[in-house]
Request: fold
Amino acid sequence: MSNLIHDIKHYQPVAAFDAAAASYDDTFSFSQTGMLQRKRVHYFLQKHIAALGGKNILELNCGTGEDAIWMAEHGCTVTAADLSANMIAVLEKKSAQQPPLSIKALQCGFDEVAEKLAGNRYDFVLSNFGGLNCISGEALKTLSTQLHGITNAGATIALVIMPKKCWWEKFYFMLKGSKKTGRRRRQVSPLDVNVNGNSQLVWYYNPVEIEKAFSAAFTKLYTRPVGLFLPPSYMEGYFSRKKGMLKILYGLEKLFGGFSFLSAYADHFLIVLKRKE
Reply:
């Protein structure tokens, strides 16, 4: 276990996310593509959040807190955890500017869940927009066990993951004349990604792999594509000037977004799982 924890820390160099914190909202949260993809996630999650009736939620890799604030505005008590102190600082600044919300910000990496959250019990856990792509399959299995230990009976977890077969990525890089880059998500070994000048290892997972990694402690309820027709954020420069086209793509996203079998081909997919007793 100690070796695995060391590996998880290696996968998550905090400098990468600290460096990204200042620009994250501009480049993703408040971008046209980012806001529309988050809107889709919230659409799928709303029924779960409404059913909680103010219960406890844990958000992992909370980033700058857009989801934590949204869930707290719906009456939930949210523990918002992130590895990056700079991300947490942005969240705390945002929440201070809101009407009083029940949000507890906590600096906590995936390897620290069992230690820092021991004794707590949650009814819902969220990890949005590829945070879990920063750890290996074995680390995902360990996290599954840890989440089982801090959730209540009947709890659900919602994970938004980047899959291997994103058609947008293949199409985009084919147009740029780089077919090899368009297939980068499919490689077996982790991809070394540059995040604000820092190296970050990234794994890509298809829905069946996530279901299997969490199968000892959780049962899959459903999956949904997120970003099937909505483009990835690195295409924001083009689509920010094409709002009419984005509106059409969002309509297609809503039309086809209920088909689970399309999850593996989107920019992200949502998988919702229920705690085993």
